[in-house]
Design brief:
The chain is an alpha+beta fold. The protein has three domains: about 5-60, no CATH class; about 65-110; about 115-285, Beta Barrel (Thrombin, subunit H), CATH 2.40.10. It is built from three helices and 13 strands, in the order H-H-H-E-E-E-E-E-E-E-E-E-E-E-E-E. Strands 7-6-10-11-12-9-8 form a seven-stranded antiparallel sheet, with no helix packed on it. The longest helix has about 40 residues, at about 70-110. The termini are far apart.
Length: about 290
């Protein structure tokens, strides 16, 4: 037997002896003794494991995570914004159509014998100033609009069609001179005139550039500030049947009438929309049957 094998056996026996002795010692001391062979083994193995790890990395490429696609995220944001805008537009159109249907139903309830109607919404492209203010709209005879059709917005009377071209039309506003406005007064905006109410004729107030109207009422009249003036041409002398019930304005003041202050009051009526600043209007167009 060679000296090398004798040395190996001796080292092995020595290691077994040390481990046996350390198992009999206290835990704190045994830990220090057992740490010595571990340190020696690590000292020998670390260079070898480093070489092997480098070799494996060269054979197998490192695993990397894909970078976030910023362009795709920005595109998703843009598509989300576009979808949100479309939904809002559809909601607006739905509300507008619902409002038009409600108004048409209201007109048919008010005028059971009226012709079938449809509403043409159009943009305002220009206007003229008092004493005879008008609005120029971007639709005309090609869209079914004719002279005498009623212009309104959200149930408020705007005026009537004065003349048309194939692609445009002009609206004569209710605060123009010589416009006849027979009305009845109702306490709430939703009341439908029944025909039995007393009818009043509005006069344009020229003292404030035609911004208000007035009507003469009796001193003991039940009409009060806040009442609404509904157009009601009982015999259709000045306005077509479908215009009945549209709101001309609201009473903002009641004062003694200068011509007969002891017996008559003057109700001041102001339109609730700025007629010459409108950007769009609706035209009531009877169906051609």
């Amino acid at each position: 037997m060679s000296s090398k094998s004798h040395n190996s056996q001796r080292l092995l026996m020595f290691a077994v002896f040390v481990l046996a002795i350390s198992s009999l010692l206290p835990a704190s001391f045994a830990g220090r003794v057992s740490f010595v062979p571990k340190a020696i083994v690590n000292f020998v193995l670390i260079p070898t494991t480093t070489i092997l790890h480098g070799f494996s990395s060269s054979v197998r490429p490192p695993k990397t995570l894909p970078a976030a696609n910023i362009n795709t995220f920005e595109q998703l944001q843009a598509e989300y914004a576009a979808a949100t805008a479309l939904i809002r537009q559809l909601q607006f159109e739905s509300e507008r159509l619902r409002d038009e249907n409600d108004q048409l139903r209201r007109y048919h309830e008010l005028n059971g014998s009226a012709n079938s109607l449809h509403i043409v919404r159009t943009q305002v492209s220009g206007s003229t100033q008092p004493p005879n203010p008008t609005l120029l709209i971007s639709k005309g005879a090609n869209h079914g609009i004719a002279i005498g059709n009623v212009a309104f917005l959200d149930g408020k009377l705007v005026g009537s069609i004065r003349f048309t071209t194939p692609l445009t039309a002009e609206i004569k506003l209710i605060n123009s001179q010589a416009v006849q406005l027979p009305v009845v007064f109702k306490p709430t905006v939703g009341d439908i005139p029944e025909g039995s109410e007393e009818q009043y004729d509005l006069t344009l107030n020229t003292e404030d550039d035609g911004q208000t109207f007035f009507a003469q009422i009796d001193k003991d009249s039940p009409v009060e500030i806040g009442f609404w003036a509904h157009l009601y041409d009982r015999y259709n002398q000045y306005w077509p049947t479908e215009a009945k019930g549209l709101i001309v304005g609201q009473i903002i003041d009641i004062i003694p009438d200068p011509t007969n202050p002891y017996l008559v009051n003057r109700a001041i009526i102001k339109p609730t929309i700025e007629l010459q600043r409108l950007r769009e209007v609706d035209i009531l167009v009877p169906d051609q049957n």
